[in-house]
Specification:
134 residues, mainly beta, 4-stranded antiparallel beta sheet, 3-stranded antiparallel beta sheet, 15% helix
């Protein structure tokens, strides 16, 4: 896993790494300061597979997080993202505005209205018969 497109214009990245916990679980550890107050947050996720080059796979979507909070799960993908955020990082599961604070856990790409990236990362994994290998 690596954080990409650093440094960011609207946020300051302090830490970006994966850590292995004592029970063997691998966790994402990110610390990020977002100083401006944001009323628009876009989350983008893409999945690629490698044949001879990396090619787009089934997942290529983006949602506007503040609108999804206000209107609820508009479509199944945004409902899934909201459920994942609610269960894994409940400290950021609230309606907009966001920002003007430090975030210690984030996971995906966040942008503001001017399409300025707040944080972006790439993760690589291999799928085998046994399941996902990080």
């Amino acid at each position: 896993m690596q954080c990409t497109n650093t440094p960011y214009k609207l946020s300051q990245l302090h830490l970006c790494r994966m850590e292995q916990l004592p029970n063997g679980t691998v966790a994402l550890n990110i610390s990020l300061d977002v100083r401006p107050v944001l009323n628009y947050l876009e989350i983008t996720a893409k999945l690629f597979y490698k044949y001879t080059t990396y090619r787009p796979f089934m997942i290529d979507w983006s949602i506007e997080l503040c609108q999804a909070y206000r209107m609820g799960g508009i479509n199944p993908s945004s409902a899934l993202v909201l459920k994942i955020i609610e269960t894994t990082v409940p400290n950021i599961y609230y309606a907009c505005p966001h920002g003007n604070r430090s975030y210690s856990v984030l996971d995906i790409v966040f942008r503001d209205t001017s399409n300025t990236v707040l944080i972006s990362m790439q993760m690589y994994a291999a799928m085998r018969k046994q399941g996902l290998i990080g």
